[in-house]
Amino acid sequence: MKILSQLRTSTFQLALLYMVVFATSVFILLAFIYWRTAGFMTEQTDQTIEAEIVGLAEQYRGRGINGLISILRERVSRDPNGKSLYLFTTEDYLKLAGNLSQWPEEAEGSDGWIDFTLDERLGWEGEPRQARARVFEVQGGLRLLVGRDIQELATLKQLIETAMNWGMGITLALALVGGFMMSYSTSKRIEVINQTSRKIMSGHLSLRIPTRGTEDDFDQLADNLNQMLDRIEYLMEGIRHVSDSIAHDLRTPLTRLRSQLENTLVSVNDPYAQEQVGRAVGEADQLLATFNALLRIARLETGGKATDNAPVDLGGLVTDAVELYEAVAEEKFQQLLCQVDENVVIDGDRDLLFQAISNLIDNAIKYTAEQGNILVTVGRNHERALIEVADSGDGIPDSEKEKVFQRFYRVGKSRSQPGNGLGLSLVGAVVEMHKGLIELEDRYPGEEKPGLRVRMSLPVVAGNGPGASDVSS
After folding, report:
1. Rounded to two decimals, what is the model's pTM?
2. CA distances, 175 to each of 3, 15, 160, 178, 247 (Å)
3. How far apart are CA 144 and CA 75, in angstroms?
4. Which of 1, 29, 214, 418 is buried most, with the most CB atoms less than 10 Å from its CB?
């Protein structure tokens, strides 16, 4: 699979394109060399044949047909198996002279040239060989064939063609290997950038992309990205510091204000004044809860870890949270159900996990109408623990499912409900601290009220026995 993924990289595709261009260039070069070499040798052979024809034509003009026959017999007797080939025949192809026994069966070209094979049927002794000849007619319908043995030329052409094929094959193989190596080297450096980027996106904002010190393009890219990350981290730290400072500095005077309001509530006897002071105490409690949530989220997002991590039985934890909210659900005539599997244990902070589950159940009750139903389940899928809170409320549009984890973000329909928009932000921070995942999806897809299913996936403790099958409802 790694090789297949390597083949799909843009660097390998670029190397493959270069390989095609390079191989095409090599092929054109080799073809040109072959064309010029083979053409030159063929031209030399044709010129030799033409020279012999000119000489025989002069003998024919000077000595006639008998003189031509005598010249041919003399040349054949001097070198019967030489490279020169002769055949002088009548109009009916009866042999008069020459070192071939009969006329070749191969078709004659329009220019008088003919390529044929020397073998036993032509009276040739030995292995079959390639030949090329020129044919022309003599006075009286007589036919004369003058040619050359071109076996060496044919062998040389075959060697050149074989060398071209091997050369192209080696070129393609080397280009493919070189492209793969170049692609692997480039992809390896890109993967380092990707891995570091994924860790940074998961919350490790202090990480930076490593460089090799070569000052090449990748080092320049890494330096620019690192400078950008430094700037982003600086700005985020500034924003976080301002919000945390505001929350921290205002919490103390708000606490004093609340205490004074409580004292006032006890001292006044006017029912109307008591009602107004009571409302002010409630608003102060809401502000304090908001500031406390902000500070807690800030500690979690900056990498703060709980000091009391221990094995947590999620079944018992969820059962306790459901029992805590049963009375609240009964006030809205809602059905709050709980289905848990045994022996689902994770390593984490019990208080933070309880807070996260409580926030999810509280949201489900708050945004589910009367007579609605809420189901809280705990199960296990292989090495992951699954916690689901599913309600029958209005749900969250798909376009806003990711945004609800932002601080103070609230879906349009929920703005009239009490709250501060920090519940899911705290849940997301707790899940991230426990190296888990959280997903939002419709419980009843396609329905007018699709409801909402919140699924948390957390790693179980190593060696924890198998629980039940996947969670579903």
Report:
1. 0.48
2. 17, 8, 22, 5, 63
3. 15
4. 29
